[in-house]
Design goal:
Order of helices and strands: HHHHH
Largest sheet: none
Number of strands: 0
Strand content: under 5%
Distance between the termini: 79 Å
Helix content: 25-40%
Shape: elongated
Structural class: mainly alpha
Length: 110
């Protein structure tokens, strides 16, 4: 008979597993009740709390609603040595050029 193996904790995660567990306990909910409120399986909640499965941003929002806590409480805190987030695909729009000398300014416009 083969023994069950546990999944290794994932790293990096988008959420703090201990924060999810703490918030659930403070809300007085069981894992089963939290899963029901979020519309997911009990095993997903267990894996999120153990850190073996990442909570997507949508899942973090659902957890925050169900636990009546700010989303930021459940999100992973980034360390200074974490790599920066990827650059946006689109460059920001250029700023308008300032008016030249002698330009008459109208209210709210150059």
């Amino acid at each position: 008979m083969k023994g069950r193996h546990r999944n290794k904790p994932k790293n990096p995660l988008d959420h703090e597993p201990l924060a999810v567990t703490y918030a659930r306990q403070q809300a007085g909910l069981t894992k089963t009740e939290l899963a029901r409120r979020c519309g997911v399986s009990l095993s997903l909640i267990s894996e999120i709390e153990s850190g073996t499965r990442n909570a997507t941003p949508a899942m973090i929002r659902a957890l925050a609603r169900a636990l009546n806590c700010p989303r930021v409480i459940l999100e992973r805190k980034r360390d200074d040595d974490d790599p920066p987030p990827p650059a946006p695909l689109l460059a920001p729009a250029p700023l308008p050029r300032p008016p030249g000398p002698g330009t008459v300014l109208r209210a709210g416009r150059w």
